[in-house]
Amino acid sequence: MTSSKEYGSSSWELIVTVDHQYEEEQKEFTLRVTGDLHIGGVMLKLVEQINLSRDWSDYALWWEQKKCWLLKTHWTLDKCGVQADAKLLFTTQHKMLRLCLPNMKTVRLKVSFSSVVFKAVCDICKTLNIRRSEELSLLKQLEDTLKKKKKKDKNNKEPVIEDILNLYNSPVISGSPASPGLFSKTMTPIYDPVNGTPVPSTMTWFSDSPLTAPNCSILAFSHPNCSPETLAEMYQPRTLADKAKLNAGWLDSSRSLMEQSVQEDDQLLLRFKYYTFFDLNPKYDAVRINQLYEQARWAILLEEIDCTEEEMLIFAALQYHLSKLSLSSEAQDFTHESEVDEVEAALSNLEVTLEGGKMDNILEDITDIPKLADNLRLFRPKKLTLKAFKQYWFVFKDTSVSYFKNKEAGHGEPIEKLNLKGCEVVPDVNVAGRKFGIKLLIPVADGMNEVYLRCDNENQYACWMAACILAAKGRTMADSSYQPEVNKILSFLKMKNRTMSPQAVSDPESMDMKPERFVSPRYAKKYKSKQLATRILEAHQNVAQMPLVEAKLRFIQAWQSLPEFGLTYYIVRFKGSKKDDLLGISYNRLIRIDAATGDPITTWRFSSMKQWNVNWEIRQVAIEFDQNVSIAFTCLSADCKIVHEFIGGYIFLSTRSKDQNETLDEDLFHKLTGGRE
Which of these, 230, 307, 329, 56, lies nearest to 318 by C-alpha position? Predict the structure, then answer.
């Protein structure tokens, strides 16, 4: 007999669907519950009713209508708002997910569908042996970018199974024994006795990891380039608006995969989202450096970032060099300690471009501020005028550049003084044509003033360009990053110098290089194969002696030198404007760009930002800067939460320092990027 208490007014029936792993059909169970029963009690009742002996520890309740997990097991049904009409699913929190990595390889592994994406990416990166997981995130590929691929799939219906690397033997569960101190700085790198390649030192910390040596090789070493036909099938953005579409699919880091309608065995892209690559270290970052190189390589090949023909040839030469090293028997003889130390010295150049990348010799920063003084040529574009450069005597001091009629007039009042703080600095260089120009876009009340400077040679250009780059960030030449910046610019110019040795042409292996694999389809169409091969081989002479890791770092460095590097585009409508504009978000600034011409209109630095907020009702982002400057815009090409997260994410990353022992303040990240909480 059933007591009358059970059928009292306070109890009701709750239907829960159980998602059994390895079984196709889901089963429904009806539980009689009261509002004061906690979530843990519901799960206990359910497991007792299922009456199956198995490990239920990974299971949790998912509320379908509200699209949320009920993970606070001490909360009651009343507190959660669960009533008799609720559809609950009892399912595993960790599910299979296919991830397309920056090197276009797909890995299949178990990922937490109940943790926020920020935490899930952290766990994924631990499995893949990638440090600094906060720089990466997950991206949904949008339908527009898949159209070309679908045409190809119709001709080839069989799935390419061998391209998927299965890592599902070891689920990515946070708090696993491998987690504590996983990426300690004190680890000693270990080298494979067979081929000398560095086995990532973390590998010895967890013998049951799915990332065995062969799998690590797939992730840490680049593989032959795809054919030109395959490249032509892939989506290539043609306009800045197309580039904005690519950035619409970033997942919300503050919500879980399940909350964002990601299903089991879906495919997502794992990509470097924030272009601030902190503390790159060849001893521990074999996978990270390779994946970063691959993301840069594909961005160049698919023209997601613009570069000149001269720069394209440098990228092609480095790719050709890396493909030769990967295929040769001496592929991995780059790992001797002395060479790793040399590469570490080059890494300071990579950090120079980041706001936080300072060296230890702080004494340099408090001495007298040096100045540059030299004859340069200047041109200010005006309508209906020829591009005529006129020589002046220039003096660069602090963050300003002044110019005078001649050297003798240098002690008097300048013709004009240009304050470069917050300006855009764009290289205007053609080494073959002996053109060393600097394009300055200087912010003024109604937009940007264009000024062109022309230098006489490489050394003069490197010194003045480095000074302009630092001044734009509000730094002077006394800053310790000035000389490394000069050296970086000189090394990039040296790579652009083309010198051809007769041996290179006569090498039969070189002539069979298939040059179309190393350049974007647009450049491949421009030249005959033999012409292209010759030009790549000319550029290759400057990098032919580089070891593998250094070549990858040089590629990343050259990528960082491109004017468009690190800019993520969105189509926005500014408050009070009648037309759409583009917003470029970088690690240290926001740029308003004319959608029709692609020209920068205004730049706002994060360093002068006072506060920003989002009006979630009208989906408007509002930002206040120093000197009573305020802007507001709505985002048209993506959810405004994505833009809000980019701004907060870059500010969060600027707080990192090497003293933090690699621990992340996850709460601070969510405070800066969460928005709604």
Answer: 307
